[in-house]
Design brief:
The complex is a heterodimer of chains A (300) and B (427). Chain A is 35% helix and 27% strand. With 300 residues, chain A is α/β, with parallel strands linked by helices. Chain A has a six-stranded mixed β-sheet, sandwiched between helices. In chain A, α3 packs across α4 (106-119), α3 (91-101) packs parallel to α5 (135-147) and α4 (106-119) crosses α5. The radius of gyration of chain A is 23 Å and the shape is globular. Chain B is of the alpha/beta class and 427 residues long. In chain B, α8 (191-229) packs parallel to α11 (289-316), α11 packs antiparallel against α16 and α16 (360-373) runs antiparallel to α17. Classes of the chains: A alpha/beta (300), B alpha/beta (427).
Chain lengths: 300, 427
C-alpha cells in the first residue's frame, strides 16, 4: 500500500528567506505522525505544499502515491491553524456544504454531518448560526467538518488550542477512532506532552530543516539515558558523571553526562550508606529533545 | 462530471441558495412587484372614473348621430377618421358615426389620407377577433381616433354577447400597429416610438448593469473577502480549485441578480398594461428582439467582467471594510458612457463611443447605448463581445490566482509587490 503522504526534499523560498529547506518524511496509513517545531519552523508551509496550496521550489510531494491532484485531495481532511467557518450560516448548512465539496452526495453529507455533530456533542446546536457558538464549539465544529468525508489522511494543525480538557479528551478519542478506521494522521502541536501521548512517530522541524525524524521510542533510546530520579533521605557528597542536579523534598533528579553509567549513581548512594527508596532511569522527554535540538540548531 | 465542474456546481448551488434564501433578497425582489400590485389594486378606482367617462361617451356615440357629433366637437382634428373593416365577425355599421368615413379598400383610404381628406385611417384586420390587430395609419401626428374606435369596438362586441370569443375580445383592447404615411405615399412603421423604446431598453439595461454590479458585485466582493477574513479559504482550497470557487460564486450571484431583474421586468410586463389609461397602446410598442438579445449579451458579458474584477478585489484585500471603497474602480468606468451621453446621442459613431465600446471595462454600457441610438456594424459588435468574453475569462483566472495567493498574505495589506510575490508562490 502506498504511503498516505511522502514529502521528499521539499524546499520553499520566499524572497530571500528559505522557509523550508529539504524537508523529507512519510506518513503511513493508520499511524499518527507528530509534526513539531518552534514558531516559524516551516511546518505550515510544508503542510500547504503537501496540500498543493503552494508549490515547492524543489523536491516533490506524493499524496497516496501520486502528485497531489483534486482526486487525491478529496481524500484529505484538513484542520488548519488559521481557521474559521461562515459565521452567518447555520452550523449544519456549513458542514453539509463542506461535505459536498469533499465529494459526498447531498444525502451522505447530511447524514455524516448529523453523525459528526452528535459525536462532538453539537447536534442540538446544528440549526444555530456559527456566530452564536462559543469558541470551543466552533473549534469542535471545524474538527468535525475535517472528518465528515472519512478521509484517508487527516492533517490537524494545533487542534487542541483553546479547548477545555474535556473537549480535548473527546477530540483525542475521535482521533484514535480515525486511526483505527485506517486513516493516517498528521498531528501538529506545540504541546509536546500531547504529541508524546498521541504519536508513534515524529518529525521535528526548525529553521526549515528536519532535526529529528523517526519512531518516538527509538529516538529516545538513541539519545541514551540522560535522566535519573532517586528518592532518598539525602544524597552523597559526590555523585559521579552528573551535569545537573535538581533537589526537592528528598527527591533528586540527575542529568547524566554522556557515557555515564546510571549504576554508578546508584552505587554512590549505596556506598555512602544512604537507603534508596526509589531509583528510576528515565528516557528523555520529547520536550527535552525539542529544547535541546532546537537550541543546538539555533546556536549553530 | 469532472471534478472542477463539480466544484463549480457545488459552490454555485451553495452561494445561490445562500443569496436567494436571505431576507434581503426577498425584500428587494418583491419591492417593485408589491408597489406595482398596490397600484394595480388602486387602478380600478382610477379606471372606474375613466370608464365612467367612456360610458358616457359611448352612450352618446351609439345613442344618436347628433350626440356623437357633439362628442367629437372640439377635438384636435376636425377631419373625419377613415375606417376599413376587413373582418366579417363584427356587425357594426361605422357609417352611422359621422366622424368616421368608411372605405372598402385600404388603398382608397390611404389615398384620402395622403390627400388630407381624412386625418387618420384604421384598418380592422380580418383576424381582429382572434388577435385584436388594427392597423393605424397617419401622416404627422395621430389624432384621437383610437379612443373613439376603442369605445365603439368594445360596445359593439359587448352587444354581441352570444359569442364568448367576441366578449373576450371586447374586454381586451385592440392592438394597434402604427404606420406613418409620407408625402410620397411611402408607408413605414412608426420609427420614433421604436427608437425611443430601443433607447429606453439600452439605457435601462445599462442602468440595470450598474445597479446589479453595485448590489451583487458588492455581495460577491464581500463573500470572497469574508472567506479570507474568517479563514475559510484554506479549507476551501483543499476541496475545490480556486477557479471553480470563483466561477461558482460569479455565476450564482449573477443568476440571483438576473432573477431579481426578471421578477421586476415580469412585474412591469404583467401590471403595467393595467395602466393602459395612463400609457396608451402599451401592447403596440414595437420591440426589436434581435436588439434585445444583443443588449442582454452585453449585459451578461459586462457583468462577468465586473464581477471578476470585484472578486479579484475581494481576494486581494484583507477585509470587507478595506475592499469597499475599491469597488468604485469598477463602477466608475461603467458609468463613463453616461457622462458622454450627448456624444452618444448626437454621434454614436464618433471615435470616442467606438473606442469605449471596444474597451472591455466600458464596452457593456457603451455598446448598449450605441445599439440603442444607431446601427453598429456586426463586426464591431462581434469584436467587442469577443474582447469582453476573453477579458472576463482572464480576469476570473487572475482573481482565482489572487484568491489562492491571498492566504500567503493573511493580515498583510496587499501591495503590488506583495501581490506579485504571492502570485508567484501561490501554486
Amino acid at each position: 500500500m502506498a504511503s498516505a503522504l511522502t514529502v521528499d526534499g521539499v524546499k520553499k523560498i520566499f524572497g530571500r528567506n528559505t522557509v523550508v529547506d529539504g524537508v523529507s518524511f512519510t506518513v503511513e496509513p493508520q499511524e499518527i505522525m507528530g509534526l513539531v517545531g518552534p514558531n516559524g519552523a516551516g511546518k505550515t508551509t510544508t503542510i500547504r505544499m503537501a496540500l498543493d496550496i503552494i508549490r515547492p521550489d524543489a523536491g516533490s510531494v506524493a499524496l497516496f502515491g501520486s502528485t497531489p491532484n483534486r482526486q487525491a485531495l478529496q481524500r484529505v481532511g484538513y484542520l488548519p491553524e488559521e481557521r474559521g467557518l461562515y459565521q452567518k450560516s447555520a452550523l449544519s448548512d456549513v458542514l453539509r456544504y463542506l461535505g459536498r465539496l469533499k465529494g459526498l452526495s447531498a444525502k451522505a453529507a447530511q447524514s455524516r454531518s448529523d453523525a459528526m455533530l452528535q459525536r462532538v456533542g453539537l447536534y442540538e446546536h446544528r440549526a444555530k448560526k456559527v456566530q452564536a457558538l462559543s469558541r470551543g464549539m466552533n473549534q469542535l465544529a471545524q474538527f468535525a467538518s475535517a472528518l465528515l468525508h472519512q478521509p484517508d489522511l487527516v492533517i490537524l494543525d494545533e487542534p487542541f488550542s483553546g479547548l477545555d480538557p474535556l473537549n480535548v479528551q473527546v477530540m483525542k478519542e475521535i482521533i484514535h477512532e480515525q486511526q483505527q478506521r485506517g486513516a493516517a494522521i498528521i498531528f501538529s502541536s506545540h504541546n509536546m506532552e500531547d504529541v508524546e501521548e498521541m504519536c508513534e512517530r515524529v518529525v521535528l522541524v526548525s529553521g526549515g530543516n528536519v532535526l529529528l525524524y523517526g519512531a518516538l521510542d527509538e529516538l529516545k533510546r538513541a539519545r541514551g539515558i540522560q535522566n535519573i530520579q532517586v528518592t532518598a533521605p539525602q544524597q552523597p557528597a559526590d555523585v559521579p558523571g552528573v551535569s545537573n542536579t535538581k533537589v526537592e523534598d528528598g527527591h533528586f533528579e540527575y542529568l547524566l553526562t554522556e557515557g555515564t553509567d546510571p549504576n554508578a549513581v546508584l552505587r554512590s548512594f549505596l556506598d555512602g550508606g544512604i537507603p534508596v527508596e526509589r531509583f528510576e532511569v528515565a528516557l528523555p522527554s520529547l520536550r527535552d529533545m525539542f529544547i535541546e535540538e532546537v537550541s543546538r540548531a539555533r546556536g549553530a | 462530471m469532472p471534478a472542477a465542474l463539480d466544484g463549480t456546481r457545488i459552490v454555485f448551488a451553495h452561494e445561490f441558495r445562500k443569496q436567494i434564501g436571505g431576507k434581503g433578497f426577498l425584500i428587494a425582489t418583491l419591492t417593485i412587484p408589491v408597489i406595482l400590485v398596490v397600484l394595480w389594486i388602486a387602478i380600478p378606482v382610477i379606471r372606474g372614473l375613466v370608464d365612467g367617462d367612456d360610458a358616457a361617451e359611448s352612450a352618446a356615440t351609439i345613442g344618436s348621430a347628433d350626440t356623437a357629433a357633439t362628442t367629437t366637437e372640439g377635438s384636435a382634428a376636425d377631419l373625419p377618421i377613415g375606417i376599413v373593416v376587413q373582418t366579417t365577425d363584427l356587425s357594426v355599421d361605422f357609417a352611422q358615426f359621422p366622424e368616421f368615413r368608411v372605405y372598402t379598400e385600404t388603398a382608397a383610404g390611404l389615398d384620402e389620407l395622403q390627400s388630407g381628406a381624412i386625418n387618420e385611417l384604421f384598418v380592422i384586420l380580418p383576424e381582429y377577433v382572434a388577435t385584436g390587430h388594427v392597423e393605424h395609419y397617419f401622416t404627422d401626428d395621430a389624432g384621437e381616433g383610437r379612443q373613439q374606435l376603442r369605445v365603439i369596438l368594445r360596445d359593439t362586441l359587448l352587444g354581441q354577447t352570444q359569442s364568448p370569443e367576441l366578449r373576450q375580445r371586447a374586454l381586451a383592447r385592440p392592438q394597434f400597429a402604427r404606420f406613418t404615411v409620407a408625402e410620397d405615399g411611402e408607408i413605414a412603421a412608426e420609427s420614433g416610438l421604436a427608437v425611443a423604446v430601443s433607447f429606453l431598453i439600452g439605457q435601462g439595461f445599462a442602468i440595470a448593469l450598474i445597479f446589479t454590479l453595485i448590489a451583487y458585485g458588492t455581495i460577491l466582493l464581500q463573500t470572497v473577502s469574508e472567506e479570507k477574513e474568517n479563514r475559510m479559504v484554506e479549507v476551501l482550497l483543499t476541496s475545490a480549485s480556486p477557479l471553480a470557487i470563483m466561477t461558482g460564486k460569479v455565476l450564482a450571484l449573477g443568476l440571483a441578480g438576473l432573477i431579481q431583474m426578471s421578477v421586476w421586468v415580469a412585474a412591469v410586463i404583467v401590471v403595467v398594461p393595467r395602466f393602459a389609461g395612463v400609457i396608451p397602446d402599451i401592447g403596440t410598442i414595437p420591440i426589436d428582439f434581435g436588439f434585445l438579445l444583443l443588449v442582454l449579451a452585453f449585459y451578461l458579458a459586462g457583468y462577468a467582467i465586473a464581477a471578476a474584477l470585484m472578486a479579484g478585489i475581494g481576494a486581494a484585500t484583507t477585509s470587507v471594510t478595506e475592499a469597499g471603497p475599491l469597488t468604485a474602480l469598477v463602477i466608475i468606468p461603467l458609468a463613463v458612457p453616461f457622462y458622454a451621453m450627448p456624444l452618444f446621442l448626437s454621434s454614436a459613431d464618433h471615435w470616442l463611443p467606438r473606442l469605449l465600446s471596444l474597451l472591455p471595462i466600458t464596452a457593456a454600457t457603451s455598446m448598449m447605448l450605441r445599439l440603442a441610438t444607431s446601427s453598429v456594424a456586426p463586426g464591431e459588435i462581434a469584436l467587442s463581445l469577443l474582447l469582453m468574453v476573453v477579458t472576463a475569462a482572464l480576469l476570473l483566472w487572475l482573481a482565482s490566482r489572487i484568491f489562492r495567493a491571498g492566504l500567503l498574505l493573511y493580515g498583510q495589506r496587499m501591495s503590488l509587490r506583495a501581490a506579485w510575490t504571492a502570485l508567484r508562490h501561490g501554486g
